[in-house]
Amino acid sequence: MPTILKHFEEFRDTLERGWVVAYPTETTYGLGVNPFNKDAVSLLDKVKNRSKGKPYLMLVKDMEMLETYAEMSTRVRELMSVLWPGPVSVVLKAKPKLPEWMIEKNGNACFRVSSSKFAEKVFEYIDRPIVSTSANPEGFPIAKDISEVVSYFQSQEQLSVFPDIYEDVKGRLPSTIVDLTLDKPKVLRKGAFNIVF
């Protein structure tokens, strides 16, 4: 049975332990782990019943943190200054500071600066990216509240849940994903933010 967390210190410590944490974002409930812990990422694959080798997107605190892990052009900076924080995830060329299991075969990785109050608070306790993937077993609808998260993952002992204390969760649509490694940005997944290039 998942553990219910009450403090942000518990959130940080749970990630450090290598467990999975379900937490609210500005779109849906997400599942997160420490992206630098390979065993934790493998555990997340198992929890979601997800195919191995498919890299996850990551939340970052801001563009300064992003620059540590991804190549940033002036064009990207200008675009993200308009879109972030918000429900838009971007694909960029990864830097070597990211572990290989978080990088796609083409050398890219996916990131987002969330507009949720929860994420803003979390990064007061954590100084590196956090994996963010929808809180559902693969093939099932995304959990929109804590009761659905617990229902999906009630048999998972290495999973904890943080209640939506700020009422961030707004619906079932995940973030929009945009590939910014191309000459012209390309929308890879339509989601909570409608954007046209």
Keywords:
ten-stranded mixed beta sheet; alpha/beta; DHBP synthase; 197 residues
Q: Could you describe the 3D structure shown?
A:
This protein starts with a strand and ends in an 8-residue tail after the last strand. With 197 residues, the protein is α/β, with parallel strands linked by helices. The protein has a single domain (3-189), classed as DHBP synthase (Alpha-Beta Complex). The protein has helices spanning 8-16, 38-48, 63-69, 74-83, 117-122, 146-152; strands at 3-4, 20-24, 29-32, 57-59, 88-93, 108-112, 130-134, 159-161, 176-179, 186-189. The longest helix has 11 residues, at 38-48. The chain is globular. It is built from six helices and ten strands.
Write the layout of secondary structure elements.
Elements (H helix, E strand, L loop, with lengths): L2 E2 L3 H9 L3 E5 L4 E4 L5 H11 L8 E3 L3 H7 L4 H10 L4 E6 L14 E5 L4 H6 L7 E5 L11 H7 L6 E3 L14 E4 L6 E4 L8
Parallel strand pairs: 1-8, 2-8, 4-6, 5-9
Antiparallel strand pairs: 2-3, 3-7, 4-7, 5-6, 9-10
Radius of gyration: 16 Å
Return the domain count. Answer: 1
Q: Strand fraction band?
A: 15-25%
Shape: globular
- In CATH's first tier, which class applies? Alpha Beta
Name given to the CATH architecture: Alpha-Beta Complex
The SSE string, one letter per element, is EHEEHEHHEEHEHEEE
Strand arrangement, largest sheet? 1-8-2-3-7-4-6-5-9-10
Pick out the low-confidence regions.
none
Count of helical regions: 6
How far is it from the N-terminal to the C-terminal residue, by CA? 44 Å
CATH superfamily: DHBP synthase
Q: Roughly what is the average pLDDT, rounded to an integer?
A: 94
Q: Provide the CATH topology.
A: DHBP synthase
